[in-house]
Amino acid sequence: MKVLPFKIPKAKNIGLIYQEDKGLSFYDKLHQHEEIQICYVVKGEGTLIVGDTVNDYSDATILVIGGNQPHVFKSDTSNIKNSFMMSLFFTKESFGDTFFELDDFKELEMFFNNSRTSFKIINNKEKLINCFNELPIGDDFDRFITFLKIIKLILKSDIERLSTFLYTKKYTDNEGKRMGKVMDYTLNNYNKKIDLEEVSDVANMTPNAFCRYFKQRTNKTYFTFLNEIRVEKACKLLQNKEYLITEISEKSGFKNISNFNRKFKEIKGYTPSDYRANY
């Protein structure tokens, strides 16, 4: 299967695609698809990389991922449980080139603008989940009506943007495979020492070429990205008070506690101990 681009399977003449993902983990390869994805994580937890940011997801997370936004769900399989996600896929042209251009849908312009950089839903989750639960039992027309209800609820909800950088180009297959290898390697080795030569070899590039390549596609350096992954992993560990902060620093891949505290505050805006206290 090609890593990028990723084709959403669909029947002919179907504008709205409903999909269920069930298993020990979600599809864990970096990919992009032209469709906007509205997804409800029924069960599952892990790390979500979308655009230029590292985020986490857990049960009852509701997300909107923009069309052609590179992303990957990396499920946490340490707690053995099946993952389950419901998704709707569509483009602005799925129902005709001018359907969403009608005056009837003017208020949806905010939704499409926000979807470009992807976002997480903060409130109105119970109402949205009730709508998602209608999707498996309705016919195509029922599903379309529910889809409009979901978008209307999202427009009334508070959101948290997931990405700050819009990469407008589609990845080629080779680029997708290369970036996918880098993401996989980083997510599997973030708690170890990673040097530039090592990760450049994974990408099959020279260190200088890799630095330019990664920055152009994420708007940040590789080591900024690596530290963001380490901090997100540390946040998970900080929620478990059995671990000392010094242990968490080491488990997250930081060389020493002072560097851990500094990087954590740079990324999150507060110290690890403050995060634990407020959590």
State the major sheet. Answer: 6 strands, antiparallel
Q: Mind telling me the C-alpha Rg?
A: 20 Å
Q: Estimate what percentage of residues fall within beta strands.
A: 15-25%
Helix content estimate: 25-40%
Along the chain, the helix and strand elements come as: EEEEEEEHEHHEHHHHHHH
Major sheet strand order: 1-7-2-5-8-9
**Net shape:** globular
Count the E strands: 9
CATH superfamily of the largest domain: Regulatory protein AraC
Name the structural class.
alpha+beta
User: What is the CA–CA distance across the termini?
Assistant: 40 Å
What's the helix count?
Answer: 10
| Number of discrete domains | 2
Give me the CATH architecture of the largest domain, please: Sandwich
The pLDDT mean sits at: 88
Uncertain residue segments: 1-5
According to CATH, what is the class of the largest domain?
A: Mainly Beta
The name of the CATH topology of the largest domain is Jelly Rolls
Word description of this protein:
The structure is a single chain. Helices cover 39% and strands 18% of the residues. With 279 residues, the chain is an alpha+beta fold. It has 2 domains: 17-161, Sandwich (Jelly Rolls); 190-278, Homeodomain-like (Arc Repressor Mutant, subunit A, Orthogonal Bundle). It has a 6-stranded antiparallel sheet, with helices on one face. The protein has a 3-stranded antiparallel sheet with strand order 4-3-6, covered by helices on one side. The chain is globular.
